[in-house]
Amino acid sequence: MKVRVTEYLDIDLDKELWCCHSCGKELGAVRENYKHFTLVYDRDPHEIHKPYINPESSPVGHSCSPDPEWCRILEFYCPNCATMFEVEYLPPGHPPTHDIELDIDALKARHQNQDNH
Amino acid sequence: MPIDEEVLNRVCTEEPTELEREWMDKIGVDEFSVYLTKLELICEEAKQNMIMTGLSPAIQGMDCGVGVYTAAGDLVAASVGTYLHICSGQVPIKYILKYYKDDPSVGIHEGDVFFVNDVLYGGFHNMDMLNIVPVFWEGDLIAWVVAAAHEPETGATEPAGFVPYARSRYEEGFKAPPIRVGSNFMIETDFFDFFSNMLRDTITPHDLKAKASCCFKMAERLQEIAEQKGVGFFVGLMRRSLEVVTDAGKQRIASLNDGTYRHVIFFDLQGKEEALGCVHITLIKKGDQLTVDLSGSSPPTMSFLNSKPHVVRGLLAGVMMQYLFADFPVSTGLLAPFSFKVPPGTIVNAPNDRAMSGSMRITAPVVNGIMVCLAKLLFDSDLRERVTSPPSMSGVGLAAGGGIDQYGGIVIGIIGTIIINGCGGPATPFRDGMDAGQFWFSGFADCLDVEHGEVQTPVLHLFRNIMMDQGGPGKFRGGATVCQGYTFHNAKGPLRLIFNTSTSRVPHTPGLFGGYAGGINPFLEIRNTDWQPLFENASEEIPSSYHELAASKRITYKATQFVSEDFFMNGDGVANGSGSSGGYGDALERDPALAMDDVGKQITSPWAARNVYHVAFDEETLEVDYPQTSKLRDQERERRKKQGKPYHDFMKEWLERKPKEEIIRSYGPWPEGIK
Q1: Which one of B316, B427, B463, B466 has the minimum C-beta count within 10 Å?
Q2: Considering only alpha carbons, which residue of chain B is nearest residue A34?
Q3: What are the CA-CA distances from residue B283 to residues B294, B402, B422 (Å)?
C-alpha cells in the first residue's frame, strides 16, 4: 500500500520504501532521510532570481537577488525522472535539513486501523 | 514591577470557576451559536469604530484588532485587522490580575483603562499599543476587552519607533508595563499629558482615547448580554467556547501523522550591519501535542532584531487562526496543543535589556519556518487543501520616519502608502498565490490608496504596481508584492527615513515541495532628481516600475537596506517592494499558459519564462509553442540528471565549504547554532 506524503513522494508501507510519486521509482528505506536517495545540485541563486540591479549601484553590492556567497540553492531530484522533490536555500556548507522524519510504526498502525474499519 | 516569566508563559486556558462549570453545559447548542456570534459582532462593531475614529494610518489600513477575554484573561472572541494584536492581550491582563487586583494603590474598578506596550510584559514591539478595560456586572469582574493597534510613534531615538542600530531597549522610547491610565470612563489628563510629552506626534495620544472609547462600547454591549441572559449564562458561554475549541484543536492535531519535521531559516541583518544568523526549527508531533523546539539559534544581536518566546507563540497563534484553525472561533484554546522549547541567550530568547523594536523581523520568518513544517505535516491528511507555502515576509519593506509635511506640520510613521499590506500571498497545491494579497500578519489588511498616502504624507508617487519576478517560481507561483516609487513633494522641511527591512542576501520566504523562494528587493534611495520638469512635460522618462527605475541611466540611486545618512528633501525619493511568497512544486510542471499570462501582466519576465519555467513562446504574441516547450523541459530534466550528484558524493564536497568568516562572525557555533 502506498501513501502520498508530499507532492512528489510516496511511502510504500509494505516495503517500507520511499517512492517517487511522479515515476514510481523505489528510492530507499523510509526510515532514512529521503534526500539520501536523490541527486543533488548546487545552483547559483542568480540563475533563478535575476540580479536586476547592478551591484555597483549599491555601497554594499545589493542586486535584487540572493547573494551566492551567502546562500546557495540545493535542488534535490528524483534520480530516475528528475522531478525536483525539494529545494533548500542554504549558506555554503550548511548540512541539508532532515525535513520529514515520520513515525513509520504509527503511520502503519493508522492505516491498518483504517483498513480494519 | 517585576518582569514575570511565569505570567509571560501563561498563555493556556485558566481553570474554570464554579459559576463557569455550573453554566457551561446548561447552554443549548442554538443559544451557544447565536451568542458566540453576538460576541464576534460586538467585536466587529468595535473594530469598525476604531477604524473610523483612529488616526494612525496603520489603523486605517487595519493593522489593529479588538478582543473579548474572560475574567481570568483568556481570549474568546475577536475582530481584526491583525490577529497578533489580540494574541498579545492575555498576558498583560493576567499580569494585572496577579499584581494589581489586590493592591490597594491600584486595584481594578469599573471604568478603568489600562495600557501596555512593553514586549517584556506581553507585547510584541512597543509600537503595538493596547488599551485594556475590565468589564463589571453588579460589582463583579466578568470579562475584559482589548483594543490594540500599531501606532506611529514611541519617542525613540528615531521617529516612528524602529531603531535598527539600537544596542539596548533604552534607545527605543516609551515602554509601559500594564499601567492604569484611565478611570471613571475617562483617560486621565495627567497621563495623557505625560504620554504626549514623550512623543513627537499627536496621533498616538489621540488613538489612546479612540481605543478607550471602543473598549467602553464593547463593555456596554457585553453588559447587555449579562443583563438579558444573566451573568451565569455570560461566563458559561465564554467558558464553553474555550473548552470546545481546546477539544476540537486537540482532535485535529491527533488526526495528523506523528513525526518530526524540520526547517532552518537564515537572517542577513544585525540592524545596520550585515551578518548571517540562523534559527533551526524542529516540530515534533505526537498524539494531540505539537512541540516547537528552536534549539540551534544564533546569539542575540546588538540591534533591534531580537525576540522572546512569547512573541513567537503569539505570532504563531495569530497565523494558526488564519490557517490550521481558521474554521474555529478565535480562542486561547487554540494554543493548547502547542508547547515550546526556546534556548535562552539566543536571538529568539534574548536578554531582557536588548533592543526588540524589530522583533517581528526575526519572529515572522521563524513562524514561517514552523509553517513549512506544518505544511509537510498536513499534506497526508484531510486538511491537504490548507497546505500552502508560507506567507511572504522576506523583504517586507517599510520606509518609516518623520519630518515636516506638506502642511507645515509634523508627520511621523510610514511615509508613502502601507505597501507592507500588499505582500504576495502563499501558493497552494491548486493555485498561485494572490498578488498584492495581504500583510504577513493579516489577510484582511489593506494598502490604502495612493491618494491616501499622498494626502497624509508629502509624497508624489511615480508608480505603484506589482513587482516583476518576485513571486517564488513553482508549479504554482507565490504571490508577488506591490512595489512603489515616490518622490518627496511640497514638503515644508526635511524628512528623516529608516529603511526598515528584512533581507537582501538570503530569502526568508521559502517555497514548498520544489518551489523556489520569494524574491528579495533592496530599497532604492534616490537623490537630487530633476523630476519636476519631467512631470510638467509628461515625459516618458518618468519610470513606471521598480525595474525600470533600476535600469534608468538618468536617475541616480543607491540600493541599500539601512538607515539613510542624510535627510530627504523635495526631489529625493524612494522605491521599494515588500515581501513575496515562495512557490509550490517543480517549476517545470507549471502550465505554460499561466506563465505566459504572467508575462503579459509583467509579473513574470520573459527571461524567467525562458530560463526558469523553460517555456518556448513567441516574443511578440506571447503564444506558447507547446511541442518546443515540452522538448525544452525534457532537455532540462536530462541536464538535472547530468549535473546532479548522488547525495553522499555531493556531501563530501559540500560539507567542506563554509561562508567567509566575516559573514558568519555573529552566527554562533557553525553550523548548528546555540543548542
Answers
A1: B463
A2: B647
A3: 9, 41, 29
Please state the length of chain A.
Answer: 117
- Are B478 and B525 contained in the same domain? yes
Instruction: Label residues A52-91 b or e (16+ Cβ within 10 Å = b).
Output: bbeeebbebbbbbbbbbebbbbbbbbbbeebbbbbbbbbb
Tell me the mean pLDDT in the region B33-60. Answer: 95
Q: Are residues B563 and B481 in the same domain?
A: yes
pLDDT digits (tens, 9 = 90+) for B228-254: 999 999 999 999 999 999 999 999 999
Which chain A residue's Cα is nearest to B276?
A70
Q: Which of B262, B268, B647 lies closest to A97 in CB terms?
A: B262
Interface predicted TM-score (ipTM): 0.97
Can you tell me the distance from the alpha carbon of B187 to that of B192, in angstroms, rounded to the nearest whole number? 7
What total of structural domains would you count in chain B? Answer: 3
Q: Are B478 and B393 in contact (CB under 8 A)?
A: no
Cell numbers 487586583 correspond to B101
Q: Is B55 exposed, middle or buried (0-12, 13-18, 19+ CB in 10 A)?
A: middle
Domain limits at B101?
5-9+41-229
pLDDT tens, residue by residue, B568-601: 999 899 998 989 999 999 999 999 999 999 999 9
User: Domain residue spans in chain A?
Assistant: 2-95
Burial of B615 (C-beta count, 10 Å sphere; 0-12/13-18/19+): buried
> Residue B443, CB half-sphere, CA atoms under 13 Å: how many?
14
A113 touches chain B (CB under 8 A): no
In a domain, B153, yes or no: yes
**DSSP labels, B414-462:** E-S--GGGGBPPPP-SSSPPPTT-BBTTBSS-----HHHHHHHSSEEEE
> What's the mean pLDDT in B24-33?
95
